[in-house]
Amino acid sequence: MLARAARHAHAQRLETCVPGLMVHSATAPTGLLPGVYEPMLCLVLQGAKEVLIGDRVLRYDPDGYFIASLEVPVSGRIVEASPAKPYVAISIRLSRESLAALITDAPPLAANGASAPAAGFAVSPLSREIVDPCGRLLALLDAPHDVPVLAPLLEREILYRLLQGPQGCVLRQVARADSRLSRVRRAIGWIRDHYDKPLRVEELSELAGMSAASFHRHFKAATAMSPLQFQKTLRLQQARRLLITHTDVSRAGYAVGYESASQFSREYARAFGCPPARDAVRLRGDASAFADAAA
């Protein structure tokens, strides 16, 4: 798999001819790169990466796979890569619709008592059951004429294996429209679409169909952030994108919803390690400093 992926790794992040399959590579460690992870599975074939999600730090390498079942803002960095042994990884988008269609055919999981609030991301030990179909999906890069017929079958097999694995319970919750995790996902969608607007947790909990206390507990468990922290992270990431396009600091802060320039500068410096004006100069001098953090 490493040899095949490396042959196709012509960019830091390559969208392949197989729908939803991307190949990632780097020849040196990186600093923290902000981004938003969509639901996905990631296998590192060589090297290692760390992601910071809220107050959690996760490392993944060839011994385990990373899975995100919800949209979450992250900061990621490649920690093992060199010209001789580059970082090489593949990621596969996870379709909620495909999961929902599959769970009716998948065997039920054994009951494990009362269900606790679930995290929307995890690193799990890699197994042969996951590696085999992912390897066959990757092999389609060398047989693109087979993609229309075989890729959907392999996607279904991969999703089935994930449903039977350590994160199967979480993925089943995401696929079920009435689950608490799906309700949290609904609130996440609202925050992403309205990150620059005032956020009222009571209105979000009503949207999710939960009490305010229950919503806050489940949201924090799923994302490692409170709803307000989630919104602030999205705001600061978007402001950073604006700064690299030569938007001035005050305008960037107001554009993402801050009413106070001084508050924006304080929170930006706390998140990224230096004030926005100084960070903007650094970002503009290094085009790769704000690459997509995904996988």
Q: In sequence order, what are the helices and strands, one letter per element?
A: HEEEEEEEEEHEHHHHHHHHHH
What is the residue-mean pLDDT, rounded to a whole number?
A: 90
Strand order of the largest sheet: 1-2-9-4-7-10
The CATH architecture of the largest domain can be named as Sandwich
Q: Please mark out the parts with pLDDT under 50 across 5 or more consecutive residues, or reply none.
A: none
Quickly name the level 1 CATH class of the largest domain: Mainly Beta
Using the coordinates shown, work out and report the CATH topology of the largest domain. Answer: Jelly Rolls
Helix content: 40-55%
Count of individual domains: 3
Give a quick account of the main beta sheet: strands, pairing sense, barrel closure.
Answer: 6 strands, antiparallel
Can you give a write-up of this model?
The protein is of the alpha+beta class. It is built from 12 helices and 10 strands. The chain folds into 3 domains: 2-173, Jelly Rolls (Sandwich); 177-225; 236-290. Helices cover 45% and strands 20% of the residues. The strands form 2 sheets. Strands 1-2-9-4-7-10 form a 6-stranded antiparallel sheet, covered by helices on one side. A 4-stranded antiparallel sheet has the order 3-8-5-6. A hairpin with a 5-residue loop joins strand 1 (13-15) and strand 2 (21-26). The two termini are 16 Å apart. 38% of the residues are buried. The model has no long low-confidence stretch (mean pLDDT 90).
Features:
Jelly Rolls, four-stranded antiparallel beta sheet, alpha+beta, six-stranded antiparallel beta sheet, globular, 295 residues
